[in-house]
């Protein structure tokens, strides 16, 4: 379990384009932080640097008491959920769920129990023998969420996870994700979350706090009531 800390984090693409200008951000253990801002403001770059999918050009990223700057994604204690689900297309759902644990050579018994637990939580027990192409968008996103959850990561990273779903499914997935976050907190294994979206409803209803970015800088970090308060 861990807090997340960005200290003067910079990103320069190519030789000179500075996409992220020395940002500082503290996300407390168990906190749900939403990143918002116009397209191109570097939300995704920031998330990918935390994940280790993008190198950082300056500064430090800490997860708990570990400086993770030079760690590969698999060693950071993070799990990421993508907009396009990014399921392994040739693997059945149960293999998609358990693949991360298999890579870590966890015992079969533990993998079986963990698969059963997350499929219960996300109600995907009926889907375990299907291939990703046999899933609806909502089902695929629940599997993607299950694949992240099964790793019991310290930090969950979400990159516009609901953008490909219709309005009704988006609403139910919003509730599902916030309920899951609360459940983990209640069970004493709080998940620290960074959630990128351009959807104001998601930001308002899901975030403990919201971080507003613009042009590679953080403009404001506040709780939803403060940020969206009407005069
Ligand atoms: P957002 O997620 O907020 O839409 P991005 O993080 O995708 O923003 O992009 C931030 C800025 O960095 C944009 O100006 C974008 O064009 C630029 N950028 C993103 N990825 C790359 C890349 N691989 N090479 C060069 N520039 C990039
Ligand atoms: P593979 O042969 O692809 O390695 P396994 O049959 O060994 O897959 O199963 C991998 C893990 O997934 C095991 O822990 C197994 O218990 C579990 N598993 C396999 N099939 C299912 C299924 N239909 N439903 C739920 N869990 C399953």
UniProtKB/TrEMBL annotation:
Residues 4-231 form the ABC transporter domain. One of its GO terms (molecular function) is ATP binding. Keywords: ATP-binding, Nucleotide-binding, Transport. The keyword Cell division does not apply. The keyword Nucleotide-binding applies. It comes from the Bacteria. Belongs to the ABC transporter superfamily. This is Sugar ABC transporter ATP-binding protein. It comes from Maritalea porphyrae. The lineage of its organism: Bacteria, Pseudomonadati, Pseudomonadota, Alphaproteobacteria, Hyphomicrobiales.
């Amino acid at each position: 379990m861990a807090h997340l800390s960005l200290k003067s984090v910079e990103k320069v693409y190519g030789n000179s384009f500075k996409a992220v200008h020395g940002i500082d951000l503290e996300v407390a253990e168990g906190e749900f932080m939403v990143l918002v801002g116009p397209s191109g403001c570097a939300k995704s770059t920031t998330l990918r640097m935390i994940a280790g999918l993008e190198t950082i050009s300056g500064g430090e990223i800490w997860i708990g008491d570990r400086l993770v700057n030079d760690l590969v994604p698999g060693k950071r204690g993070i799990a990421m959920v993508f907009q396009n689900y990014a399921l392994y297309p040739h693997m059945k759902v149960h293999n998609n769920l358990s693949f991360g644990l298999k890579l870590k050579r966890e015992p079969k018994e533990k993998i079986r129990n963990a698969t059963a637990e997350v499929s219960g939580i996300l109600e995907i027990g009926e889907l375990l023998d299907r291939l990703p192409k046999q899933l609806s968008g909502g089902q695929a996103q629940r599997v993607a969420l299950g694949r992240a959850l099964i790793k019991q990561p310290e930090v969950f990273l979400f990159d516009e996870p609901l953008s490909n779903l219709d309005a009704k499914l988006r609403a139910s997935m919003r509730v599902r994700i916030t309920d899951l976050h609360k459940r983990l907190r209640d069970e004493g294994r709080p998940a620290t979350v960074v959630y990128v979206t351009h959807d104001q409803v998601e930001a308002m209803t899901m975030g403990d706090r919201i971080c507003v970015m613009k042009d590679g800088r953080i403009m404001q970090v506040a709780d939803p009531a403060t940020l969206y308060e009407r005069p």
